[in-house]
Structure formats: structure tokens, C-alpha cells
Specification:
Number of strands: 2
Structural class: mainly alpha
CATH topology of one domain: Histone, subunit A
Shape: flat
Distance between the termini: 26 Å
Strand order of the largest sheet: 1-2
Strand content: under 5%
Number of helices: 3
CATH architecture of one domain: Orthogonal Bundle
Length: about 100
């Protein structure tokens, strides 16, 4: 079972803010999910090949065709903020 301090630490590391009323239901849900995973570990998979895709058909691929590449100016033409040949985006600093 997942305890509250572990859940709060995990939420903090994931940059999630949990309200007090959200902790108990989330703890129950995660405990149930881990229980399902534990049940899956008990399934005998000896002789079962890994499933790569549920479909027998292969994915159709298109032919590679040469085309003109976009210039930096074309790529930046719809950007709201640019400087020289770069996109300008807000700074993002993560603090934990």
C-alpha cells in the first residue's frame, strides 16, 4: 500500500500540487494499480512470444520523394516572437 508521505513526495517530484481532499482517493487508485501489476507478475508467460503489434498487416509506408526543404525564414514566419534566426520562448526554471 502507498502511504501518504510517499504519495506527497512523488507528487512534489512530478511538480503536482495535491489538495488535501485529493490525497486519499489518489492513494487508493495507485494502490489498486500496483495490485494489478502484482497480479500480472504471477501470469505464466512461458512460451508466449512478445506482441509487437496487434495487427497482422504491416504498416504501409510512403515512398521517399525529394522535396525542397524549408528555410529558417519559412519556419519562423508564423512564430509570434523571433530574434535573428531563433524562436523566442519564455524562460523556464524548475526548482524542486
Amino acid at each position: 500500500m502507498i502511504d501518504t508521505p510517499f504519495l506527497q513526495k512523488t507528487a512534489r517530484l512530478a511538480c503536482l500540487k495535491l489538495e488535501g481532499h485529493e490525497v486519499a482517493p489518489l492513494r487508493e487508485d495507485l494502490t489498486r494499480i500496483l495490485s494489478f501489476i502484482q497480479d500480472l507478475r504471477g501470469v505464466d508467460t512461458e512460451g508466449v512470444s512478445p506482441l509487437i503489434t496487434p495487427f497482422a498487416e504491416s504498416t504501409p509506408l510512403r515512398e521517399d520523394e525529394p522535396h525542397l526543404e524549408e528555410t529558417a525564414q519559412d519556419a519562423l514566419s508564423n512564430a509570434p516572437h523571433t530574434r535573428d534566426s531563433y524562436f523566442l520562448v519564455p524562460k523556464f526554471l524548475r526548482t524542486t
